[in-house]
């Protein structure tokens, strides 16, 4: 993962108090097909800049990005495992609860493993809710503890990659393994203060777990009810992000305060039927939410 790839593709993170990562860029230089070095500046030519910053590599070789930064700060990272029905029972009930939670956080991310409760009934399932809030409190754990945790996560990711391959080849065991994985993960709620890079990149070793992925972004309506509808059609991974000024961003919107929901479906590599399944999901989101 490199800055050039992250910014050119419009990668977004999960923040609603700040905008997407490319919206931190103030200048980009690109070498075109004729070998000319072109400079696009937010201050001098904002329209051209909005097209050039997120360019998917179509305009030439990206030579430099200039990024706006701020001093280091800490985040309180909150992990909770509430019942699925707490937020996604109906659009009328779940939407306002989601809105209150998302607007009360700097960042919010929601995960779901199917078949994570006894009896494999979705009505009994739980979700994993991660919330981040700025804080002036000091970091909870030592740097040595943080490094040790990262190494442990790397080893676990290597083991998980083998497990996911086995599940893809033997789909009948997937419900049982999902249940075990979630029970282990959700044993304890947790609150921890971390420096912002560690809080955002809380999981080390994810490159060891190759997967297939579908992501769609759509604009959240006033009461967040459309989020519940989109989520309940197929439950995967969800983030909330503030809109972007970059024209090719999947969260582009002229309204600087608009909030977008990005829904991701991740599955182990070589999962049978994923292409057809993800195509069906993408069509539903595009038809119903202009994703």
From TrEMBL:
<dbReference type="GO" id="GO:0050660">
    <property type="term" value="F:flavin adenine dinucleotide binding"/>
</dbReference>
<protein>
    <recommendedName>
        <fullName>FAD-binding PCMH-type domain-containing protein</fullName>
    </recommendedName>
</protein>
<dbReference type="InterPro" id="IPR036318">
    <property type="entry name" value="FAD-bd_PCMH-like_sf"/>
</dbReference>
<dbReference type="InterPro" id="IPR016169">
    <property type="entry name" value="FAD-bd_PCMH_sub2"/>
</dbReference>
<dbReference type="InterPro" id="IPR010031">
    <property type="entry name" value="FAD_lactone_oxidase-like"/>
</dbReference>
<dbReference type="GO" id="GO:0016899">
    <property type="term" value="F:oxidoreductase activity, acting on the CH-OH group of donors, oxygen as acceptor"/>
</dbReference>
């Amino acid at each position: 993962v490199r800055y050039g790839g992250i910014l050119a593709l419009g990668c977004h993170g999960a923040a609603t108090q700040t905008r997407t990562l490319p919206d931190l860029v103030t200048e980009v230089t690109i070498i075109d097909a004729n070998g000319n070095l072109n400079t696009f500046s937010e201050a001098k030519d904002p329209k051209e800049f909005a097209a050039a910053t997120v360019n998917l590599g179509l305009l030439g070789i990206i030579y430099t990005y200039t990024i706006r930064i701020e001093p280091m700060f800490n985040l309180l990272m909150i992990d909770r495992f509430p019942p699925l029905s707490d937020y996604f029972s109906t659009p009328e009930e779940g939407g306002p609860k989601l809105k209150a939670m998302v607007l009360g956080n700097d960042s919010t991310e929601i995960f779901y493993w199917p078949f994570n409760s006894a009896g494999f009934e979705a009505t009994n399932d739980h979700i994993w809710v991660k919330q981040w809030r700025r804080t002036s409190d000091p970091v909870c754990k030592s740097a040595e503890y943080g490094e040790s945790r990262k190494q442990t996560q790397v080893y676990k990711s290597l083991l998980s990659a083998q497990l996911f391959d086995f599940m893809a080849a033997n789909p009948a065991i997937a419900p049982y393994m999902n249940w075990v994985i979630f029970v282990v993960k959700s044993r304890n709620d947790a609150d921890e203060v971390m420096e912002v890079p560690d809080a955002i990149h809380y999981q080390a070793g994810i490159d060891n777990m190759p997967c297939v992925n579908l992501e769609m972004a759509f604009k959240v309506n006033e009461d967040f009810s459309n989020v519940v509808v989109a989520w309940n059609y197929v439950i995967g991974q969800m983030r909330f992000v503030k809109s972007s000024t970059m024209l090719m961003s999947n969260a582009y919107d002229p309204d600087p305060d608009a909030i977008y929901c990005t829904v991701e479906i991740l599955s182990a590599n070589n999962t049978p039927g994923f292409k057809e399944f993800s195509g069906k999901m993408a069509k539903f989101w595009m038809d119903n939410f202009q994703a």
